[in-house]
Write a structure and sequence with these properties.
CATH class: Alpha Beta
Strand order of the largest sheet: 2-1-3
Number of strands: 3
Length: 108
């Protein structure tokens, strides 16, 4: 594994910056027509939407969220957030029980 040095930045700051860059890049490639069964749905009442800025603050504060990529396996293999696990939305119901309830969980 290669390491790198970014002067003046802590690891959480670097991770938050990279996460923000990846999320803003990948959102421009989102194609809801690939998932018509999920397009235009509202999140359940017990789900809170989190901005990239808020997520970056949480990571900088030392929180270690579980990041779940809900796109297809093909999209995950193409590009994903380092450390994210792949749980495609099409199979998500069968994975719900494996999601921890004691930590921040981010779905993208």
């Amino acid at each position: 594994m290669r390491s790198f040095f970014w002067p003046g930045k802590t690891l959480p700051e670097i991770l938050a910056l990279l996460l923000g860059m990846l999320l803003s890049r990948s959102s421009s490639y989102a194609d809801p027509s690939k998932y018509p069964q999920f397009a235009q749905q509202s999140p359940p009442a017990n789900v809170e939407l989190v901005s990239v800025d808020d997520l970056a603050k949480d990571i900088q504060a030392g929180k270690k969220p579980l990041i779940i990529d809900v796109r297809s396996e093909e999209e995950y293999r193409e590009v994903h957030i380092v450390g994210a696990v792949s749980r495609p939305l099409t199979d998500f119901d069968s994975n719900v029980e494996r999601i921890p309830k004691d930590r921040l969980v981010i779905l993208y």
